[in-house]
Design a protein that fits this description.
It is found in: Cell membrane; Membrane. It comes from Cohnella zeiphila. This is Sugar ABC transporter permease. It is a multi-pass membrane protein. Helices cover about 70% and strands about 0% of the residues. It is an all-alpha fold. It folds into 2 domains: about 60 residues, no CATH class; about 250 residues, MetI-like (MetI-like fold), CATH 1.10.3720. Helix 11 packs across helix 13. It is globular and about 70 Å long.
Length: about 325
């Protein structure tokens, strides 16, 4: 049978009742999978894609009583107001500095944690540790910050009481701006490292045990096994998550920063999220709030595209 005859036979089979019934049967078999996908699909459509239509108010002087169509168009005036704000440089510097700390201190923490847990041979001990380090993720930032206050308060904090009992001076951890960034990163690491390590542990679960056996036969130490087997198995996952993390470089999380922010440390603690809340939401200036959001999203999109191209240039899969 020639190639043309084969293609014609395949086309006839697909258009025949048997072929159609086979396709319908395959579709019905996939219904459970479609139902599992449906909640996530609806979430992104309802809460991510549909609200994007509201970005138009960044170019308007939005009035809720006039709506999208009745509000006056102001073009790029809101963006000009943002970039000419005297606090813009401070906000950008503070946001980028905290994001950099997250990238270089918080981001590697789950990787290190996953590698260490993967090296634990006793299953019961590993599972116990995993359960303990996952628990902080389910605490709200209100509870985490209150725990921090109890520990680091100047007068009644446990750490300062210990320092005082040892003859040292009390340290103003919560009111001295020099300690704000350290506390911010420490809280992030304590709360989210265990939960973030799950995806890396899942990647390590797919590593062929024969690779470790071969490394042992070749005389590789535990460190060499980690360096030549474990970390290469995590490389693609690390690259993808790092690229996605760059998309949130200007998004630090409003609640966390607001709760540990005070008038004394505002010069290092004020970021775009808290600025929008104070100067946009509380004052009812929704257009200005949306303008800041559009600026943050645009920067994140550019960084994702550049990082993805860079990953492709180095032979990695990338996000897309």
């Amino acid at each position: 049978m020639s190639m043309g005859e084969k293609e014609e036979a395949v086309a006839q089979t697909a258009s025949s009742p048997v072929g159609r019934s086979g396709g319908a049967a395959a579709w019905f078999r996939g219904i459970p999978i479609y139902l599992m996908i449906l909640p996530g699909f609806l979430f992104f459509v309802i809460f991510k894609y549909i609200p994007m239509g509201g970005l138009v108010i960044a170019f308007q002087e939005y009035d809720p009583f006039l709506g999208f169509q009745g509000s006056p168009w102001v073009g790029l005036d809101n963006f000009h107001r943002l970039f000419s704000d005297p606090d813009f440089g401070m906000l950008l510097r503070n946001t980028l500095f905290l994001s950099g700390l997250n990238l270089f201190l918080f981001f590697p923490a789950p990787i290190l944690l996953a590698v260490l847990l993967n090296e634990v041979s006793r299953s019961w001990f590993r599972k116990s540790v995993q359960t303990i380090i996952y628990m902080p993720h389910f605490l709200s930032w209100v509870i985490v910050v209150n725990i921090t206050v109890v520990l680091f308060a100047t007068q009644d904090g446990g750490i300062n009481n210990l320092l005082d009992s040892l003859g040292y001076h009390r340290i103003e951890f919560l009111t001295d701006s020099h300690y704000f960034r350290a506390l911010y990163v420490f809280q992030n690491i304590w709360k989210e490292s265990g939960w973030s390590a799950i995806i890396f542990l899942a990647a390590l679960a797919g590593v062929n045990p024969m690779l470790y056996e071969a490394a042992v036969i070749d005389g590789a130490s535990r460190w060499r096994q980690v360096w030549h087997v474990t970390l290469p198995a995590l490389k693609s996952t690390i690259v993808i998550l790092f690229i996605l993390r760059l998309g949130q470089v200007l998004d630090l999380g409003f609640e966390h920063v607001l709760l540990i922010q005070n008038p004394v440390n505002l010069n290092v603690a004020d970021v775009f999220d808290t600025y929008v809340y104070r100067n946009g939401v509380l004052q009812g200036n929704f257009s200005y709030s949306t303008t800041v959001g559009v600026f943050k999203s645009a920067i994140g999109l550019v960084l994702i595209i550049l990082a993805n191209r860079l990953a492709k240039a180095f032979g990695q899969e990338g996000v897309y």
